Amino acid sequence: MNKRGFIFDLDGVIVDTAKYHFLAWKKLANDLGIDFTEHQNEQLKGVSRVKSLEKILDWGGISLSEDAFQDQMNKKNTDYLSYIETMKEDEILVDVPKVLDYLKNEKQPLALGSASKNARKILKKVSLYDSFDAIVDGTNVTKAKPDPEVFLKAAEELEIHPEQCVVFEDSIAGVQAANKANMISIGIGEQDVLSEADFVFKDFSEISIDFLTQLINKQ
Ligand code: BG6
Ligand code: MG
């Protein structure tokens, strides 16, 4: 049996938290008098907290002192944490357990590769913390997606060559990171947004066991 490394992004791939990041960023931007659209939000997906705030301030033509910047970062995270506080298994996205269980059964190494510093907390809340052989998150990397660092680190921890890895991502930055790492990129979302991915599915219900088997056996 062939072995591939399967690397999953968290927010918007495993759990429905992308909507909470959106709400928290929108509130922060609007409070600063900056408009915030869904299109701009796509550019923040997968991107670290620091980089996201830098982008928002840039769009609004605002510059902040270091202290004020830190205050805004804390505010955003407090707001975000209030949304995820009561999260449970029911916020795991459709058919994610089906795919995780199948891959696990096939003895495929599984990793989490997320930009979020809250990743471990969220995995525990939805009882998926023990489902991965490796977890690399925002506390383990210095470079934000689209830099491939997070996925290369995950591959290293799984002891699988990057070219043998598959990445599931809902963000443009994440798909670009996977491509830069020479991994197979699978976009979860809209084809027109994630057009750089090798494959795109609306959600995991569209991913068949046949497709996964072919991925495992692909030379
Ligand atoms: C990514 C999200 O997974 O993590 C981004 O797509 C988010 O929206 C980033 O900004 C950082 O997350 P956190 O939880 O560390 O603020
Ligand atoms: Mg994501």
TrEMBL record:
<dbReference type="InterPro" id="IPR006439">
    <property type="entry name" value="HAD-SF_hydro_IA"/>
</dbReference>
<keyword id="KW-0413">Isomerase</keyword>
<dbReference type="Pfam" id="PF00702">
    <property type="entry name" value="Hydrolase"/>
</dbReference>
<dbReference type="InterPro" id="IPR010972">
    <property type="entry name" value="Beta-PGM"/>
</dbReference>
<protein>
    <recommendedName>
        <fullName>Beta-phosphoglucomutase</fullName>
        <ecNumber>5.4.2.6</ecNumber>
    </recommendedName>
</protein>
<keyword id="KW-0479">Metal-binding</keyword>
<dbReference type="InterPro" id="IPR036412">
    <property type="entry name" value="HAD-like_sf"/>
</dbReference>
<keyword id="KW-0119">Carbohydrate metabolism</keyword>
<comment type="similarity">
    <text>Belongs to the HAD-like hydrolase superfamily. CbbY/CbbZ/Gph/YieH family.</text>
</comment>
<keyword id="KW-0460">Magnesium</keyword>
<keyword id="KW-0597">Phosphoprotein</keyword>
<dbReference type="InterPro" id="IPR010976">
    <property type="entry name" value="B-phosphoglucomutase_hydrolase"/>
</dbReference>
<dbReference type="GO" id="GO:0008801">
    <property type="term" value="F:beta-phosphoglucomutase activity"/>
</dbReference>
<dbReference type="InterPro" id="IPR051600">
    <property type="entry name" value="Beta-PGM-like"/>
</dbReference>
<dbReference type="InterPro" id="IPR023214">
    <property type="entry name" value="HAD_sf"/>
</dbReference>
<dbReference type="InterPro" id="IPR023198">
    <property type="entry name" value="PGP-like_dom2"/>
</dbReference>
